[in-house]
């Protein structure tokens, strides 16, 4: 398997075997991610983090992952502190990062920005979210979380709940779950259904999929409930957002209808779609999911910067 120098733009750029290899590597890196061992694999290497949109988990976990591997980090968390404010293009900004570092992590509000960046860079570009497009490294850590919780990815029934129209994590996740033959149920408020091109894109895998607006009707069968927030910032009209805001909320009462070993996931940040009371139940996996970001992003950085002999 060849990982060295590769971009990470969309989950479909990776085979199932490659995804499993990344997850296996991540498993080996858990002790280091927990701080019990020190690593020097990426000593002298530099990661450039270019964040044109806000982030807590993705940016901090990439920075943490790089530092645990012995590398350094440069970049910006907000483009207002960069020469973008003087009119510099994304292509030129990327060319600079290419000259200064060994890999680029890019978050940008425009769909396709990461693919464009990769065309202007000789070093690997990692898509950390491009508008309502894709968030492939989130998907890898989501798969890692399911594997850790359930022992395997295949054979689970997964509900993707929430803003399936604008939520990029669910676009990547739907593709990956279909690749693994997972039965997927899409549950959204009216008007926020999964885009038809995503449904068409996963149909070739022959996976069983279902769409509904009725969560209560499908919850009892689910093994994984993947909740997402409504992406307020992507609505062209705030009035449209207000029509769907608060239309679903997971609480303890609702979870009484679920399997006792159902896991509730969420890429975070959450707004009000999971009640705080759920946090202390065995269903709550979203904070463990957030921790998975460290070993998984360590594995990605190690594989694409250092390479892999297998
Ligand atoms: N899950 C996720 O992408 O979180 P951030 O927006 O905080 O990076």
Describe this structure in words.
- By secondary structure, the chain is an alpha/beta fold.
- 38% of the residues lie in helices and 14% in strands.
- The strands form 2 sheets. Strands 7-6-5-8-9 form a 5-stranded parallel sheet.
- Helix 1 crosses helix 6 and helix 1 crosses helix 12.
Provide key terms for this protein.
about 300 residues, 9 strands, binds phosphoric acid mono(formamide)ester
Summarize the structure.
The chain is of the alpha/beta class and 310 residues long.
Kindly name the structural category.
alpha/beta
Q: What oligomeric state do the depicted chains represent?
A: single chain
First-last Cα distance = 6 Å
β-strand percent reads 5-15%
Uncertain regions: pLDDT < 50 for 5+ in a row? none
What's the overall average pLDDT, rounded? Answer: 96
Spatial ordering of strands, largest sheet: 7-6-5-8-9
Could you give the count of β-strands? Answer: 9
Radius of gyration: 19 Å
What form results from the Cα inertia axes? globular
From N to C, what is the helix and strand string? Answer: HHEHEHEHEHEHEHEHEHHEH
Helix content: 25-40%
> What's the story with the biggest beta sheet?
5 strands, parallel
**Structure annotation, total helices:** 12
Task: Name the bound molecules.
Answer: phosphoric acid mono(formamide)ester
């Amino acid at each position: 398997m060849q990982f060295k120098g590769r971009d990470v733009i969309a989950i479909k750029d990776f085979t199932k075997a490659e995804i499993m290899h990344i997850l296996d590597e991540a498993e080996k890196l858990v002790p280091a991610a927990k701080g019990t061992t020190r690593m020097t694999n990426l000593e002298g290497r530099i990661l450039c983090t270019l964040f044109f949109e806000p982030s807590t988990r993705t940016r901090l976990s990439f920075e943490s992952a790089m530092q645990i591997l012995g590398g350094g980090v440069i970049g910006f968390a907000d483009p207002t502190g960069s020469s973008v404010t003087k009119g510099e293009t994304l292509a030129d900004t990327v060319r600079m990062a290419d000259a200064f570092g060994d890999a680029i992590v890019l978050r940008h509000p425009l769909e396709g920005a990461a693919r464009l960046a990769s065309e202007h860079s000789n070093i690997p570009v990692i898509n950390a979210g491009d508008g309502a497009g894709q968030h492939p490294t989130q998907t890898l850590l989501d798969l890692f979380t399911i594997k850790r919780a359930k022992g395997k990815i295949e054979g689970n029934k997964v509900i993707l709940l929430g803003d399936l129209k604008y939520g990029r994590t669910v676009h990547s996740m739907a593709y990956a779950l279909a690749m693994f033959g997972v039965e997927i149920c899409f549950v959204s408020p009216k008007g926020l259904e999964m885009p038809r091109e995503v449904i068409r894109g996963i149909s070739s895998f022959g996976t069983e999929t279902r769409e509904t607006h009725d969560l209560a009707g499908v919850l009892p069968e689910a093994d994984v409930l993947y909740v997402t927030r409504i992406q307020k910032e992507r609505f062209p009209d705030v009035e449209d957002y207000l029509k769907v805001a608060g239309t679903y909320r997971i609480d303890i009462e609702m979870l009484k209808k679920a399997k006792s070993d159902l896991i509730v996931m969420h890429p975070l940040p959450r707004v009000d779609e999971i009640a705080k009371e759920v946090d202390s139940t065995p269903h709550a996996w979203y904070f463990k999911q957030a921790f998975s970001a460290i070993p998984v992003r360590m594995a990605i950085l190690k594989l694409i910067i250092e390479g892999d002999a297998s």
